[in-house]
Write a structure and sequence with these properties.
Elements: H1 3-21, H2 24-32, H3 36-58, H4 61-77, H5 87-104, H6 112-120, H7 131-142, H8 146-156, H9 162-169, H10 173-192, H11 195-207
Helix pairs in contact: 2-3, 3-4, 3-11, 5-11, 6-10, 7-10, 8-10, 9-10
């Protein structure tokens, strides 16, 4: 390789490393000046995280790839009008709006196992959920039939085993299992009515990991 070409290659490598060390604020300044390299650095920094946040909801690779591409195309298109103080906060809001748009226009549907997971982990780790999710679940539990609510509460709040619940209430283990299944199904169905709120909160939780 000619000496001048080596120098140019080395300079380009150093230039790329310099870009990668810049904070988001500096990259955003360059982005507003139509700097494609700054855009590429931001894309590589955040695209995977955005993809997996969406994928954990949709379980559809093609849909999630399209969603992320659209989000960054929009970012590039609006680059000269950007007024962003925190890119990460901006992207959290942007991906939430994009996901909800996909749901409203039926371009995608949420994998309901996500909702089921929320229900099954109810009160197992209170730090996992935002208060809004907890309130939705509390409201759902309050509407369960009395026996079903009692069994579910003993299971999820007092952490009793199915055998311990059966002994305390003088019922069969099979009855306990059936009532918990009924409760989970009811709560899962109830949460789908609040799907936009649930999706928004789940996305924020996933994106923050």
């Amino acid at each position: 390789m000619p000496y001048q070409s080596v120098n140019r290659f080395t300079a380009a490598m150093l230039h790329d490393k310099e870009y990668q060390m810049w904070p988001d604020a500096r990259l955003l300044e360059q982005l507003r000046l139509d700097d494609r390299k700054a855009f590429e650095i931001l894309y590589h920094k955040y695209s995977s995280k955005l993809f997996y946040a969406a994928y954990n909801l949709f379980r559809d690779k093609d849909v999630c790839e399209d969603l992320v591409q659209e989000l960054f195309i929009d970012l590039w298109t609006k680059r000269n009008q950007l007024n962003i103080t925190s890119l990460e906060a901006y992207l959290k809001v942007a991906v939430r709006h994009r996901v909800l748009f996909y749901l409203r226009t039926k371009k995608a549907s949420v994998d309901l196992t996500v909702i089921e997971t929320l229900v099954e982990k109810y009160s197992a780790d209170s730090k996992l959920f935002q208060d809004d999710i907890a309130h939705l679940l509390e409201d759902g539990v309050a509407q369960l039939p009395e026996k079903c609510r009692q069994i579910f509460t003993l299971s999820r709040k007092e952490y009793l085993s199915n055998k311990e619940i059966a002994t305390r209430l003088n019922i069969s283990i099979k009855t306990v299992e059936n009532q918990i299944t009924i409760a989970l199904r009811y709560l899962r169905t109830g949460l789908t009515d609040y799907l936009p709120s649930v999706v928004a909160l789940v996305l924020l939780h996933m994106f923050g990991k």
